[in-house]
Hints:
Layout: H1 3-21, H2 25-38, H3 44-49, H4 61-73, H5 77-83, H6 101-111, H7 116-124, H8 136-151, E1 156-157, H9 158-173, E2 178-184, H10 185-189, E3 193-194, E4 197-203, H11 210-213, E5 218-221, E6 224-227, E7 234-238, H12 244-252, H13 255-261, H14 272-276, E8 311-315, H15 326-335, E9 340-346, H16 358-374, E10 379-386, H17 397-400, E11 405-409, H18 418-429, E12 434-437, H19 455-464, E13 468-472, H20 485-491, E14 495-498, H21 510-518, H22 533-540
Parallel strand pairs: 4-7, 8-9, 9-10, 10-11, 11-12, 12-13, 13-14
Antiparallel strand pairs: 1-3, 2-4, 5-6, 6-7
Amino acid sequence: MEFNEQLIEALESYADLMEFDGENRFKINAFRSGARVLSQIPDIEEKIDDESIMDVKGIGKGIYAAIKEFYENGYITDFEKIKSKYPVSLFELFTVKGLGAKKVKAIYDHFNLSGLNDLEKICKENRLIEIKGFTKKSEENILGQIEKIRSNKSFILINHAEVIVNEVLQRLSKIDGIEKLLVSGDFRRGKTTYDKLEFVVSFKDDKISDEFLSINDITNKDNKYELNSYTIPIILYFAENKEFRKRLFLTTGSEEFLKSINKDYNDNYDSEEEILGNKFEKFIIPEIREIENLDRTITTKEIIDEKDYKGLIHFHTTYSDGLNSIEEMVQFGLVHNIEYFVVSDHSKSAFYANGLKEDRILKQREEIFSLRKTLNENIFHGIESDILKDGSLDYNQDILKEFDFVIASIHSIFNLDEDVMTRRIIKAIENPYTRLFAHPTGRILLSRDGYKVNLRKVIDACIANNVAIELNSTTSRLDLDWRELYYAMDKGCYLAINPDAHRKEGILSYKYGIKMARKVSYPKDLVINTFDINAFRKYISKK
């Protein structure tokens, strides 16, 4: 789907959910009108880049802010805030053509639905007609739409996949007779996007239970079962207990990986370690089982793991476009074993995100100084400073030097030639106050390709200037792409794995970035978020 379509769909969905949630009708109508206006504009991205979209009739400040945020991040914060109030399965109902927000609300309130599966059941039982305005013809049309939705295979992001994985595991764990059940396939390997989710299941005495076979949305194809009530295929591989680990192994690794092992898979194995044998110095973690040249990914150094994560370096607060205060973000982080924090709100060029002008920088600094005394002494005052077209940052040097940590990033003018964009970024990296280059390609997964840039030259510049490069763990970004991490790792480039959180719950998305880093065996001693507080203070004290 092109960016224009993605944006319009997001605005329309936001309007639908606002209506469902009882938002002001004038705001709802404004967003619907804005989506209609944008549908007539072929070059939306260019108009966002040069900010001429603000001159388009029907695009007010509120809609522009939403457009800009979606362009940069792939999501709209206020939209996500409303979504967080409801179960994930609710939003399946909005995908049914012909069901507007009012009808979805009526169905949801009347039946307390959990998703498409429940809606299908209600229609088949002719119970939808209990609600005024629905007929038997309505039920037939909805059933037809559900069938179409299920036939369309689409990719989803890793956080959405995780929700479905957990739901499937919880649902099936209640079934009598299941002995073992584990997620496998792409999810276990930690890919960025998913068009299917795979599991391995075994039963007591190797007898598939009647309760399992009676699941109303399951089909069987040669010992491969599929749950049909989800928007992407859910595949369950049956394995006898003695073959469980072998089946888990075979469904986890890529075809290239499995060929490289050169094993007789007709034999049974008690563990994945036994299958791997002594071919490698270390156990091959699932994330690595992706490529043919495995020797390329093996290191004697300790690979980054979730337990190693100590520092939250890139997050936003209510001072710019975040949903939570500094105190709320820090408190949430402390509960989840974060030891130090770099507050890094947007800079003044990001006016659409309430970026900080000079007077508000001082106000924020005072609050941070106060919180150091009352909450945690390891709160640092940082900034995410916009890289302007000429490569300069959007504050003068006298202001930049007052920050503890400066993050440089691009939020506009994406359509430059590769050489021009590369020079622009390198100039920002060479700024004596820059400590981190964030979301290095600007990509939005399933929505927007990254801008053209020579990443090797950028990484070389980071190393030369003692600047870390970011693996942004926002699930719509996961930027830098894991394949680009090889060069950074080989050159000894410092990496920062950051959630770029705009609400407290978003802090925990750092785990997705760690999963990507593990795909290349990135050593923890090169990830600055793993530094203890003394090492981190030393790191930021010099460039």
